[in-house]
Amino acid sequence: MITATALATDPFAPRQAPLPFPPSPPLLPVPVERGDAGQLRHRCARFTQALAEVITGARPVRQLGPWLSRSVYEQLQEHVTARFAGPRRSPRVVSLHIAMVGEAGAEIAARMVHQGRSHAIAVRLQRGRDPQGRPTWQCTAAEWA
Question: To the nearest 5 percent, what fractions of the chain are helix, strand and coil?
Fold first, then answer.
């Protein structure tokens, strides 16, 4: 039987060497964009922050109503109604990744921090037109974990 002291003195025993990297603070990921998402970046960041606040119950769903499809609105309303009843804290979106899907679609992946824990948000935006004929973006799908 091999004991711990025998392993410590055996020159052929595997030893774990310390990492050659000095300790450093964690880095936030650099935003990743595929396609021409430059004009959409600021709007996506604001929309995703508002969506994170709705998901955590800090903002009412009706405030995002004009930017949500009916199914996403109902999904969020059910989530908030079933989950939150007391005081709420605002989350913080700390990273955002945008991938353009053609000229009329964008997919967003974000990480939010809420009460010290990280959560993921995935959103699909579709370009459309409002009743006055102006171009708009509407959230047609949203998932979070």
Answer: 30, 30, 35
Q: How far apart are CA 124 and CA 140, in angstroms?
A: 6
Contact 55, 79 (CB under 8 A): yes
Helix, coil or strand: residue 93: strand
CA distance 5 to 43: 61
* 138 contacts 125 by C-beta, under 8 angstroms: yes
Looking at residue 105, which CATH number applies to its domain? 3.10.450
pLDDT digits (tens, 9 = 90+) for 79-94: 888 776 555 677 889 8
State the pTM of this model. 0.62
* Cβ pair 105, 126 in contact under 8 A: yes
Q: How many domains does the chain have?
A: 1
